[in-house]
Amino acid sequence: MALGRVLGEFGRVAIHLLAASALAFLIVRAMPGDPAVLLLLAQGQAADPATVAALHAQWGLDRSLPGQYAAWLGDFLAGDWRTSFRTGRPIFEEFAARLPVTLTVGLGAFALALGVAGPLAEAAAARPHGWQDRVLDAATLGAQAVPGFWLGCVLIWVFAVELRAIALFEAGPQRYALPIAVVALAVLGPLAQVYRAGLREVGRSDYVRAALARGASRGRVMVQQGRRYAALGLFSTAAAEAGTVVGGTAVVETVFGLPGIGQFVVDSVAVRDFFVLQAFFMVAVAWMLLASLAARLARRLVAPGAF
Amino acid sequence: MSHHRPSGVRRSPGLLASLAALAVVAALWQPYAPDAVDLALRNVGMSWAHPMGTDHLGRDVLSRILVGFARTLAAVAVVSSVCVGVGVAVGILASSLQGFARAALLRTAEFASVVPSLVAAIAIVAMFGNGTLTVGLALAAGAWGPHALLAFGLAERARGETYVRAAAALGAGSAHLLRRHVLPAILDTQLAYLGAKVGRIVIAYSALAFLGLGADSSRPDWGAMLFEYRLMMFDQPTLMLWPGLAIVLLCVALREGIGWDKDAPARVSPP
């Protein structure tokens, strides 16, 4: 039974990925311009009909539309993500080389936000109108009103120009500190807010009142019952905020000059590098689905009977 | 009289109307031509003639902020109305259908919530050009999903409420039920959810402009101004201040104007 459910979750992810791939394929097909000609021009070669026809055959573009899609999907799954018009190199290699930078910022920001959100929300739920409660409200406002790219610029100005505290563009782990902090701030507010709301809801519930009436201590009840329930909302929100992390990472890489996937994609978009966009779309959706899958499995672990 | 449970969110229609009026004025009138380069007046500080000073090309910063304000508000209006309009329509439709059609609509809304809206917008803008309307629609394309799921949940709940079932038993038609009982409850919650996320719409629009993918880069946009002015942070750090402050102020004003629900994110559980 449990195995069947887990398999069902994977099936759900597969269907979403298939839908995303169809969308990515159709959007790129709908765009003007022959990709084979564009690639040859980008590589500085003459676009003579024979070479163009050879590329069409290699990419399956001479088949029917469903045939083209099947050819593209097969290649994509096999790791052939086509070649970037801009750099002339395989997109899979370009992405793989930049993945560590992007993952460091994205996962680092996620870990930092979750690590701070938990204790902050528990303290805020325990003491309404205390300072932790106010910090949490400020973090929420920050996520809803302060753009990461501006915050990043201001931080660069404060730390690098005014204080001369850090050499921002030198290699080394310290260059990740500010980008991670900026992206983490964008997701900290929503995560902590949801967790606090969940904890407060539990605090008002009948079963917590009943436990208190039986003589259990408030702290013990909240730790045993409250966290478990509130974590359900936290996991769902974390999955939704995974999208904020993707967008925030792309922006922050541009601000801080980090050579990650986001920066590569932004440079590619300017010259309409279709296949890079297609690959990025797929990677972003896969990341969202992984986050959503992780959240669902975590919810099952925390509350096996709830679903 | 409608019986829905109000969310208790305070709204300020007056503030929203003032913002809209200000945007119309800002679009039609600026103290100087926003793109007029005057190299004799480069990097002038704040003064009565130039309240926000001039930039590295001698352009009046206030005039550029005003144009950016009108453009940003227009784009946010497009994104918000598409999200709420499509979301409510799809949610109610799915709730009134059965079987495959209902499942298909819900799965589509789920899929739309899975696609990160900034990523979707980058792809769409790169392919279909970048008018203000296109950018607004592109941002909405990846953002309407949660609105539909939220509306669906509320429509289902409203249909089950005693007072709605009582009205139906008394012979009220489905159009009447929808208008008097289901829609008010849904719209109230939609606006509270929108108020909590409208700042992120402003930020996403500015981020696109910052990345060079905004609407028509020949016209001033706050994000594009920041991208340009951040390079001057050594000589003129105040230039960087104005577009950033403008974004923060607009986000806060829209949030207070529309009204927002403290617990809004908790109400929409993604797929």
Core attributes:
heterodimer; A: 307 residues; mainly alpha; B: 271 residues; 11 helices; 0% strand; disordered N terminus; disordered C terminus
Description:
- The complex is a heterodimer of chains A (307) and B (271).
- Chain A has 307 residues and is mostly helical.
- Chain A is built from 12 helices and no strands.
- Chain A has helices spanning 2-30, 35-42, 49-59, 65-77, 91-126, 131-145, 148-162, 177-204, 206-213, 218-256, 261-270, 274-302.
- The longest helix of chain A is centred in the C-terminal third of the chain and has 39 residues, at 218-256.
- The model of chain A has no long low-confidence stretch (mean pLDDT 85).
- Chain B is mainly alpha-helical and 271 residues long.
- The longest helix of chain B has 37 residues, at 174-210.
- The model of chain B is unreliable at 1-5 and 265-271 (pLDDT under 50).
- The chains are: A mainly alpha (307), B mainly alpha (271).
Concise synopsis of the structure shown:
Chain A has helices at residues 2-30, 35-42, 49-59, 65-77, 91-126, 131-145, 148-162, 177-204, 206-213, 218-256, 261-270, 274-302. Chain A has 307 residues and is an all-alpha fold.
Q: What is the succession of H and E elements of chain B?
A: HHHHHHHHHHH
Helix run count of chain A: 12
**Low-pLDDT residue spans of chain B:** 1-5, 265-271
How much β-strand is present in the residues of chain A?
under 5%
* Nearest-integer average pLDDT of chain A: 85
Main structural class of chain A: mainly alpha
Number of strands of chain A: 0
Helix content estimate of chain B = 55-70%
Shape of chain A: flat
Major sheet attributes of chain B: none
Record field, number of beta strands of chain B: 0
Portion of residues in beta strands of chain B equals: under 5%
Query: What value does the Rg of chain A take, in angstroms?
Result: 24 Å
Largest interface: A-B, 56 and 53 residues
Q: Could you estimate the helical fraction of the residues of chain A in percent?
A: over 70%
Give the H and E element order of chain A.
Answer: HHHHHHHHHHHH
